[in-house]
Amino acid sequence: MRNGRAVARSGIRDGTLTTSGPFDLVEFPAPANYVVLADYVTTSDGTGLVHQAPAFGEDDMIVCRSYDPPFVNPIRANGTFDDAVKLVGGVFLGDADAPLLANLEERGLLFRRLDYLHSYPHRWRCHTALSTTPSRRGTSAPPASRTSCWRRTRPPPGIPSRSSTVAHGDWLNNNIDWALSRSRYWGTPPPIWRNVDDPADLICVGSPAELGELAGRDPFRPRPAPPLHRRC
To answer: Which of these, 76, 101, 153, 188, has the minimum number of CB atoms within 10 Å of its CB?
Structure first.
């Protein structure tokens, strides 16, 4: 038993302890069915085994980066499965449970079905279910001089030190790479402009005055405000 456990642990660390998945609906460019290690999975909350979906969770992506599995995302931007996915192609991800469970039961692979209450994000306007999805973004590494930054944020004498921690959320000690780019018009995009005729031609505008010179008009000239709200 000791030798067996040692072999199993070694196989988990290097990704050679393979498994077989309950579905074969998505094609992977490389082997993807094997066991990995994660410190946030416990045996007190279940079997101690959970599947990893690096395209739909931060913890999953962090764990999978250590093992470099193939990265596949079969969900389109509108929340439906790609049409090429068998059984659930074109189905909204929130409605895919029923056909998937029925398929497991038909093949005799469904041991037991239980409903669990989970917290999922929803749009606050229309209560539409949302899903986490990956995207490519430009990032900037946090400053190396965290100690200097933290010293500058400390409150002056007479102010409790806890107020600084609460105000800044201790983000200096736990911050990660900063996302510079955005894909929504209400975000904070970087001032980098791309030539539509030559995608390699990029200009980083340093000021409103420079933007006005490049545009040939005053960027502060009053203009009708665009609509900020859209129907769901």
So the answer is: 188
| Closest alpha carbon to 48 in 37, 32, 59 | 37
Largest CA distance in the chain: 78
pLDDT at position 1 = 31
| pLDDT tens track for 109-130 | 998 888 877 777 888 888 877 7
Q: Write the CA distances from 58 to 61, 64, 177, 227, integer angstroms.
A: 5, 10, 14, 33
* Closest residue by Cα to residue 174 from 152, 146, 148, 154: 146
Q: What is the 3-state secondary structure (H, E, C) of the chain?
A: CHHHHHHHHHHHHHCCCECCCCCCCCCCCCCCCECCCCCCCCHHHCCCCCCCCCCCCHHHHHHHHCCCCCCCCCECCCCEECCCCCCCCCCEHHHCHHHHHHHHHHCCCCCCCCCCCCCCCECCCCCCECCCCCCCCCEECCCCCHHHHHHHHCCCCCCCHHHHHHHHCCHHHHCCCEECCCCCCCCCCCCEEECCCCCCCEEECCCHHHHHHHHCCCCCCCCCCCCCCCCC
Residue 4 has pLDDT above 60, yes or no: no
Q: What is the pTM of this model?
A: 0.62
Q: Which residue has the tokens 């229309």?
A: 126
pLDDT digits (tens, 9 = 90+) for 24-34: 899 888 888 88
What residues does 203 pair with on adjacent strands? 193
Label the pairing between strands 178-179 and 192-194.
Answer: unpaired
